[in-house]
Write a structure and sequence with these properties.
By secondary structure, the protein is an alpha/beta fold. The protein contains 15 helices and eight strands.
C-alpha cells in the first residue's frame, strides 16, 4: 500500500516534470518561430510574370504599339469592389498602371478619394486624365448595391471586366459570439450578404454593360477561395417549394442562426456560393450566345486584413503570405487574360499554388465528399483549418497560377441552378 508520504512525493515529482516541460516549451516556441520567420524572409517571394502586360494586351486586342508602350489596357473599363485595401488595391494599382480605367466601388468616400489621388494625381492638374471613377456603396445593403449599379450603368457605355473582390471573414470574437445576431439590413448573414449576395446583384446590374464590350471575351472574376472545401454544400441547398417564391432559403443566408457551425462556416459557404453562382451563370450565358465568361479564383494566403488589422496574425501574414501587390494577384490576372480562362469547367477556377490541390485530394481520398457525418461532427472543418495553416507556410514553394479543380459539391448542377433562382428572386425587387 502506498503511504501518504510517497504518494505526495510522486505528485510533486509529476508536477515538477510537467512544470519543467512547460518551461522548455515556452522558451523554445518563440525561438522556433523566429527561426521559421527568418527562413521565410530569406526565401524570395515569387514574382509576377513579366509577360502579363503583353498577355493583357492580346486579350483585349491592343495594338503592338500600345503593348510596347506599357499601356495595353488603355480605354478598357474594369470595375472592382473593395479597391481600397488588400488584393483590391493591388489590382487597382496594377491594372491602372497598364492604362485601364478603374471603376472603384467601396464604402469609404475618404479611402476612395485617396485611391483616386494616389493613382490619378492631383485633380487640379489639368494635364492629368482621370482614370479612376469612384462609387460609394455599402455591400451589406442590397438597396445600396442596386443604387450604385444603376449609377455605373448611367455613366458608362460598357465595361470589359467585373472583379467581385470585396469580402470579409468573421473574427474569432464574432465566431465565438455566434449567439448574437449578425444580419444585413435585409436580414441575411453578413458574410453571405457581402461576399455573395451583393455581388450577385451587382453582376446582374452590370451584365448589360459587359455584354456591350467590344473585347473578345469580357469576364466576371469571382474572388473565391480554396477554403470553400470546408463547406459540404448542404447549407446552400434551397428547400423545395412549389416555386422559388415559396422555397425555404439556404441555411447559409440566415442572419440569426445562433449556431457555432453556421458562423464558423459562413466564409466557406459564401466562397462556395460564388463558385456555384459562376457556373450557373456561365451556363446561362452560353445558352444565350453571350461572349461573357465567368471565372472564380483563389489568391491563396495574401497579406491583407482578412485576419484583422493589427496583432500577431497581421504581422505573420505580412511576413510569409504573398504580397498584395505581387504574386497574390497572379491567379486573378491569369483568369482575366489567359485565352482559355472561363471557356469551360476545366478552366473556370484558378489557384496561386499547386499545394492548394492537397486539401481537395485529401478530402476526396478519405471519402469525405458527399457524406454527412464529416460536417455533422466538424471533422471536415477541423481538417480544412489544419490544411489552411499548412498551406500558409508552404504555398510559396510551389507557386504557380493555374486552373485547378474545386470541390465536388461545387459541380452539382441542381444546387447551382436552385441557388441562382432563389438569389435572383431575392434581388428582383431591385
Amino acid at each position: 500500500m502506498t503511504s501518504p508520504a510517497s504518494s505526495n512525493g510522486g505528485s510533486r515529482h509529476g508536477s515538477s516534470s510537467s512544470s519543467m516541460t512547460s518551461r522548455w516549451i515556452s522558451l523554445l516556441a518563440p525561438s522556433v518561430l523566429v527561426v521559421l520567420l527568418a527562413f521565410f524572409i530569406q526565401h524570395p517571394q515569387p514574382e509576377l510574370s513579366p509577360e502579363l502586360p503583353a498577355l493583357a494586351g492580346r486579350a483585349v486586342g491592343a495594338s503592338s504599339a500600345s503593348i510596347a508602350s506599357g499601356r495595353p489596357l488603355d480605354g478598357v473599363n474594369i470595375a472592382i469592389t473593395g479597391p481600397t485595401s488588400g488584393i483590391g488595391i493591388g489590382l487597382a494599382r496594377y491594372l491602372h498602371g497598364l492604362g485601364a480605367t478603374i471603376i472603384a466601388i467601396g464604402r469609404s468616400p475618404s479611402k476612395l478619394q485617396a485611391l483616386q489621388t494616389a493613382l490619378d494625381g492631383d485633380a487640379d492638374n489639368i494635364n492629368s486624365r482621370r482614370r479612376v471613377e469612384t462609387f460609394v456603396a455599402d455591400l451589406t445593403d442590397l438597396k445600396s448595391v442596386a443604387r450604385v449599379g444603376d449609377e455605373i450603368v448611367s455613366r458608362f457605355d460598357s465595361i470589359s471586366y467585373l472583379i467581385n473582390n470585396a469580402g470579409l471573414h468573421y473574427t474569432t470574437d464574432a465566431i465565438l459570439g455566434f449567439r448574437r445576431e449578425n444580419a444585413t439590413p435585409q436580414g441575411y448573414d453578413v458574410a453571405f450578404g457581402v461576399n455573395y449576395l451583393s455581388h450577385f446583384l451587382l453582376t446582374e446590374k452590370l451584365l448589360p454593360l459587359l455584354s456591350k464590350s467590344e473585347k473578345e471575351s469580357p469576364r466576371i472574376i469571382q474572388m473565391s477561395s480554396s477554403f470553400h472545401w470546408l463547406s459540404d454544400g448542404s447549407d446552400l441547398i434551397v428547400s423545395s417549394g412549389d416555386d422559388t417564391k415559396t422555397s425555404s432559403p439556404p441555411r447559409a443566408s440566415d442572419g440569426d442562426a445562433k449556431s457555432f457551425f453556421h458562423r464558423e462556416r459562413s466564409y466557406a459557404n459564401s466562397k462556395l456560393a460564388q463558385i456555384v453562382h459562376g457556373r450557373s451563370l456561365s451556363r446561362k450565358l452560353k445558352q444565350d450566345g453571350s461572349k461573357v465568361r465567368v471565372v472564380s479564383v483563389c489568391p491563396g494566403w495574401v497579406a491583407t486584413n482578412v485576419t484583422g488589422r493589427t496583432g500577431f496574425s497581421k504581422m505573420l501574414l505580412q511576413t510569409i503570405a504573398y504580397p498584395n501587390d505581387g504574386f497574390g494577384l497572379a491567379s486573378t490576372l491569369n483568369a482575366m487574360f489567359l485565352p482559355d480562362g472561363g471557356a469551360d469547367e476545366t478552366n473556370d477556377f484558378f489557384v496561386n499554388s499547386a499545394v492548394f490541390d492537397m486539401l481537395g485530394v485529401t478530402i476526396e481520398h478519405m471519402g469525405l465528399a458527399g457524406r454527412k457525418w464529416p460536417a455533422a461532427i466538424g471533422f471536415r472543418d477541423a481538417l480544412s483549418w489544419s490544411f489552411a495553416i499548412v498551406l500558409l507556410w508552404t504555398q510559396r514553394f510551389a507557386s504557380r497560377a493555374q486552373p485547378s479543380t474545386s470541390s465536388p459539391e461545387s459541380y452539382n448542377q441542381s444546387v447551382q441552378d436552385e441557388l441562382y433562382e432563389w438569389s435572383n428572386n431575392v434581388v428582383s425587387q431591385w
